[in-house]
Amino acid sequence: MIRLDTNKTCEIIKSDRGDISIIYTKDDGMCHAVIQNNYKHVYGMGEKFDYIDQKGHTCINRVEEKFCNQKDKTYCSIPFFLTDSGWGLFVETDCVTAFEFEKDIRISFPVNASLYLFQGNPLDIIKEFNNYIGPINTPPRYAFGPWVSANRWNSQKDVEEVVEKLEKHDFPATVLVLEAWSDEATFYIWNGAKYDEKTGNEVFTYEDFDFSESKYWDDPRQMVTDLKEKGIHTVLWQIPVYKKMEEGIYNLQNEMDEKYAIDNKLCLYMKDGSPYRIPEGNWFAGSLVPDFSKPKTKDAWFSKRQYLLDMGISGFKTDGGEFIYDDAVVSYGNKTGKELKNTYCQEYTNTYYDYLGKEHVLFSRAGYTGVQRTPILWAGDHQSTYEELKNVYTAAISAACSGIIFWGFDIGGFAGPLPSADLYLKSTQFACFCPVMQWHSEPDGGQFKEILKGAEGNNERSPWNIAASYDMPDLIDELRKWHKLRMKLVPYIYREAKKAADKGIPMMRTLFMENPLDEKVFDWEDEYYFGDDLLVAPLLEENVKSRELYLPKGKWTGMFSKDLYEGGCVITSDKEDYPVFIRQEADFDIDRE
Hints:
Blueprint: E1 2-3, E2 10-13, E3 20-27, E4 30-36, E5 42-46, E6 58-61, E7 77-83, E8 87-92, E9 97-101, E10 105-110, E11 114-119, H1 122-133, E12 146-150, H2 156-168, E13 175-178, E14 194-195, E15 209-210, H3 220-229, E16 233-238, H4 252-263, E17 269-270, H5 295-303, H6 306-310, E18 315-318, E19 329-330, H7 337-356, E20 361-364, E21 377-378, H8 386-401, E22 407-408, H9 421-432, E23 437-439, H10 463-469, H11 473-503, E24 508-510, H12 511-514, E25 528-530, E26 534-536, E27 548-551, E28 555-558, E29 564-566, E30 569-572, E31 580-583
Parallel strand pairs: 12-13, 12-23, 13-16, 16-18, 18-20, 21-22
Antiparallel strand pairs: 1-11, 2-3, 3-4, 4-10, 5-7, 6-9, 7-8, 8-11, 9-10, 14-15, 17-19, 24-25, 25-26, 26-31, 27-30, 28-29, 28-31
Helix pairs in contact: 9-11, 10-11
């Protein structure tokens, strides 16, 4: 790793694959770098939904919330890229920056930013970058089994019904995510629970709650215990706001929390001394945003949530965080809105991750530099379309190229009308060979009807509901096969996860990462290694049963056909149930796993 000297007017970095020439100019507090090098391909920049190879495009390094079809927007931006010509670059800054990847690479960044150049093969560059960011822990083993999730489950009865259906249809699950569990006012009190009036700074315990008259939850603590005895870990949804309640709705605890946050300056403020509120037209408009750079905020925030861990909750789904829309915002940690635009979401995630510890699980949508150290990243909101399936595949690979190791998405998409049976199956198959395998659902009729019309009635993306909706009883048997396969793969996935975290390299590695000197691999972005031993060529097109793919040099065995293949050529996967291949020399046996 070389720290570049942006105070110079020009730098030349010697390389055996072509010198790297950098010219610097400065104006109005900004530095502009023009980099000349004979590169052909460039990868990274965070979780990108538009392209894997960003050559010929401009990337704005900015965290943004976008509901479905993100295109060039991203929840997770990282100012890091690597090229096919043996080098990569990290711009260490919190501010929004621009990267133009044309014949020359042009970057604009604040003058106080630091630039670090890496040289070597792609995996060496990613490893060195991740080592600079810091150590990465492997999520707990249970995180690698199938996840089930829905925004529509808002009662204990709903949870019991979904578990009954898992057992009835013989589907395994190791994580259950509850989004609609809380009172929608505090996001830490179980919906429908009665509790004694509190002041804004008191600690909550489970014994403070009375569920005897609740129509939603009978005994959540016992429910969580019962689920864990079945091997299912419970994860609860979170959002970083002191919520502005809807017109005509009053909640005493919400009011006290907001007053306490303002009186003790626990939220973000504007430079003029007024509390910052999320502007109109955005998610959670009017809400205050907690300032996690302040120790007292952390203490107050988690004093209300510790009882959830005490009752056996296994982690949190930390949604949102893309809430900074004004440069005049200031934090206790002396950052302004210019920095917080990108970094607030990561500070929020860091705070939860540090609080939970590595034995719990965290599942986050937004992130910035350092997101590698707070696994797991989830790809966010997507429609149930083939185009969106391709978008999430692009996101997976670009995230991996940016050093992100643990990643997942919603099988078949979660928004709009139900996915077709074929789309749902293809998404399930792809997810089977991703670090996290999860299906997730909107509420009945759709969560954001005013933005995107959902399916009428039952909108759940469970395997049994998809099969029933299309009157395809055979489909549920096919889907069960992939969920069962996932459970058989857990030992392999967990082993590879630990190796990847220890080395600081992604679990999903597109072909060029492993074969950078093979010119052919750059034409096959839609294939990836999953750990050391498996090569996956996902089916992303409607109604296709097989595809052409490129097998790198070496000998390979079809996972399903057991046929032997000679690499270094293009083959057709028509003999395989799904295009997955095992290195012949690998220590891998699906029956043994």
